[in-house]
Design brief:
0% strand, 128 residues
């Protein structure tokens, strides 16, 4: 039962399983991407978050409202240990991780040019 042939068969069987989201899932908690946060990326992330929220609202039948229930872990995630500087920095550092995880391009030349004077990331190299 525990021979090499059985292990190979088990591992071979794993390759035929459907993947969640069509790709390999990360194990663990990604905390930072190896990509600098830029104004265009923050604009892209803001737009993605906006339309993700709208998609969820449509999915639950709230096509004309903006009600967001806050008695849940999603709300407490941001405010249990609130520090304005930490709050802003953590949100910016999540941008490339989330965008990458969902397969959204991180930014574009147009986004960088259009948003360079609007979004000023506070992220600095080596700071976390």
């Amino acid at each position: 039962m525990s021979g090499p042939a059985n292990r190979r068969g088990f591992l071979r069987g794993l390759t035929t399983l459907p993947l969640i989201g069509g790709s390999v899932a990360l194990i663990g908690t990604p905390v930072r991407a190896a990509q600098p946060v830029t104004p265009g990326m923050l604009a892209t992330y803001s737009a993605w978050l906006h339309f993700e929220q709208r998609a969820i609202q449509c999915a639950v039948g709230m096509e004309n409202g903006t009600f967001i229930p806050c008695l849940n872990p999603g709300s407490h995630f941001h405010f249990d240990h609130f520090s304005k500087d930490r709050f802003a920095l953590d949100a910016q550092l999540r941008a490339p991780v989330v965008l990458s995880a969902v397969g959204c391009p991180l930014t574009s030349v147009e986004a960088e040019e259009a948003w360079a004077t609007t979004f000023r990331p506070v992220v600095q190299e080596g700071r976390r």
